[in-house]
Amino acid sequence: HSWLRRRLPKPPSEAPPPNRPSAVLRHHHLLAAQQTQPQTSS
Fold this sequence. Notes:
Residues 1-22 are annotated as: Disordered. The protein is mainly alpha-helical.
């Protein structure tokens, strides 16, 4: 279904680069760590 891909192009914000999966995973991991870590060090 190449026509569907052309008619509905995914924005770069929602579609991470497939050649850098490690960077995407690391980014999500950092986001999860920041959300789960309690900010009591301040």
